[in-house]
Write a structure and sequence with these properties.
The protein is α/β, with parallel strands linked by helices. The chain folds into three domains: 171 residues, inorganic pyrophosphatase (n-terminal core) (Alpha-Beta Complex); 120 residues, Diaminopimelate Epimerase, Chain A, domain 1; 115 residues, Roll (CBS-domain), CATH 3.10.580.10. Strands 3-2-1-4-5-6 form a six-stranded parallel beta sheet. A six-stranded mixed beta sheet has the order 7-8-9-10-12-11, with helices on both faces. Strands 13-14-15 form a three-stranded mixed beta sheet. A hairpin with a 4-residue loop joins strand 9 and strand 10. The two termini are 33 Å apart.
Length: 429
Amino acid sequence: MQIVTSHVNADFDALASMVAGTCLYPGARGVLPSQVMSGVRQFLSIHQDLFRLIPRKGLDLDAVNSLIVVDTNNWKRLDRMDTLMDRQGLEIISWDHHMAGTTIVSDIEHREEVGATITLLLEEMERQQTPFTPMQATLFLLGIYDDTGCLTFSSATSREARMTAFLLENGADLNMVSSFLSNTMDESHTRVFSDMLAQAEMLTLGGIQIGICAIPVQSGLTMLASLVEKYKEFKGLDAAFGLFWTDQSKAMIIGRSNPAAMDVGTVVRALGGGGHPGAGSAVVKGDDLERITEKIKNLIREAGSKPSMVKEIMLDAGRFIVRADQTVAEAGEVMTRTRTRALLVCEKDRFLGLIPESAVARARKKNRLTIPVKGMVKPDVPVIGPEDDTRTAAARMDQSLEGMLPVLAQGRVAGILTRGSLVLHMYEM
């Protein structure tokens, strides 16, 4: 088995480089460290199933014969990979832009002093004409921008600028990128934040508190998303929208929310932007600030009055179910055939819990594949009801290690909601 991994407390460059590694090396699985940066965690809570990633927890390293390490070159920075250090016959491939502190001796090394590791992998992907999706392009651009301060750090090179253009040409979404990047406030940001506190308008919708800040700002002011997040937290709001009008007769709309309270992605997508339930942004031209503000209010009211129900987007659970008396080996065969990371375990009509892929791996290692799945069921898992709305589902999905929510009605399985189906609904694909 070939795996791609990176350092603990993974940032966007590390995550992007892992995903790029799975593109460059067909069949390789990205192994996500147990600890990641908060922005990365928020991004993955919605998008993880769009990438070929598995969690480090529960991964059996015995089958690993090829290790690809990205954005680090030190064994101590990896997540519990010590058993691989002295493994005979292990192939090690490294991609990194850090030039010091090397403790990993690689068979093949790609290490150059550029602004971000993802740049090196992207150049190779361009050379090999490796295909990737617009969502992957967006993540790759997040990796470049996060490590180079949107190309403003002295470490940024012309190679990052060229790869930025390459990604934009291939579908990278700048609205999505800006919604996940933040920065500290300088004097200009402090003045804008003070204006937000003084001029914001409050809107209450079904008990949800929403702040709307519509103010003019100087053209070229960056990192406005962090101000909206700080404003929401400072005022203790469920959601906040910043409408920033520049001297170029355009407005940047930035939304932040608690996904369980409001889906800001619905609002910004209606304005031609992009985002997910907790964050999104759009650019509006050719209108004045007052009319844009009124349009935002109407969209907020529509989004709050017509929440989508789980029953409208849930999948048939049939192919995800195994009986309690089936063996763990049979469950593993179903997972392989259906390419799922977990299965629902039922006894007659009663839902017992899940059997995850990691449980099958443990049983295989201990030669216990012939025991019934009932003996390895994981009972304490997050579930959802068919009448719950998708905002609740998005918040609860963040608690699911397996990326799926059993949909239960009176204790019986009515369907299943996967992270992938939820993402497709959110982006209206």
